[in-house]
Write a structure and sequence with these properties.
This protein is α/β, with parallel strands linked by helices. The chain has helices at residues 22-29, 44-61, 83-91, 106-113, 137-143, 147-155, 167-170, 178-198; strands spanning 10-12, 18-19, 33-39, 72-78, 98-99, 121-125, 131-133. The longest helix has 21 residues, at 178-198.
C-alpha cells in the first residue's frame, strides 16, 4: 500500500504533522484496509454521507466501541475549493484520518487512477493496493460497520490480536473500572434484547 504513496505526503488530521517517510507510511498503512474518501464539505450529498462515514469509522476504530481497533485507515481526498473549507471539514472528523494536502496534484492522479467522477466516493483497497470495492458509499449506508468483515476477508488481513513492540509507545493504561464498565454495557445490551424479544 505504501507504494501507492511513494514520494507523497499525507497530513495527519488536525495537526500539521506530515506522514511522508517510507517507514512512517509503511507503518500507518501496513496490513490494513485503506479507504480513500473523495468528498467535499460543500457538497450536499457529502454533507449527508460524511456523518455516516465518521460514525462508521469510529465504531470500527474507537476504544469506546471496540476492544481492539479494526485494521482500517482512511485518507481524505478533498474536492474542497479552499484550504479553509478542507480544514473546517476535517475538524469535524476523527483525528485518525489522514488527508492529501490541499492543492497537491496527487489528488487528481488518484481520481484518474480509481475513475472517480462524482462525490462522495469511497474506494476500498487491499494492503497491496488492489481494489476491493470501487465505490462503497451505498454499501456503508446499507450495512454500516458489518461490511468491514467482508472487506477484511477479501483483503486477507493477518488478524492482530496482540500488541507489537511499537504499539506500546502509544499504549495508555485503562481505568481500573474499565472491565466493570464494559461488562455493564454488555449486560445492558442483553437486557434490552430480552425485553424486545418478550414484546
Amino acid at each position: 500500500m505504501a507504494a501507492l504513496f511513494t514520494g507523497k505526503v499525507l497530513m495527519a488530521n488536525r495537526e500539521q504533522d506530515e506522514v511522508e517517510t517510507e517507514r512512517e507510511l509503511g507503518r500507518a498503512l501496513e496490513n490494513k484496509v485503506l479507504l480513500l474518501y473523495f468528498g467535499s464539505g460543500q457538497c450536499p450529498r457529502c454533507r449527508r454521507f460524511s456523518p455516516l462515514l465518521r460514525d462508521f469509522f469510529l465504531q470500527l476504530t474507537d476504544e469506546f466501541y471496540v476492544e481492539r481497533a479494526s485494521q482500517l485507515v482512511l485518507v481524505y481526498v478533498s474536492r474542497d475549493e479552499t484550504e479553509e473549507q478542507q480544514s473546517a471539514f476535517l475538524r469535524t472528523m476523527p483525528k485518525r484520518w489522514l488527508a492529501v494536502p490541499f492543492g497537491d496534484t496527487f489528488k487528481r492522479e488518484l481520481e484518474l487512477q480509481f475513475a472517480v467522477s462524482e462525490v462522495p466516493a469511497v474506494v476500498v483497497l487491499k494492503p497491496n493496493g488492489d481494489v476491493i470495492v470501487g465505490n462503497a458509499v451505498e454499501e456503508i449506508q446499507r450495512l454500516g460497520p458489518a461490511c468491514f468483515r467482508n472487506w477484511q476477508e477479501a483483503a486477507e488481513l493477518v488478524d492482530r490480536n496482540f500488541l507489537l513492540a511499537e504499539d506500546f509507545e502509544d499504549w495508555t493504561r485503562r481505568s481500573i473500572t474499565d472491565p466493570i464498565r464494559r461488562l455493564k454495557y454488555k449486560l445492558d445490551k442483553k437486557a434490552e434484547a430480552q425485553e424486545r424479544e418478550e414484546e
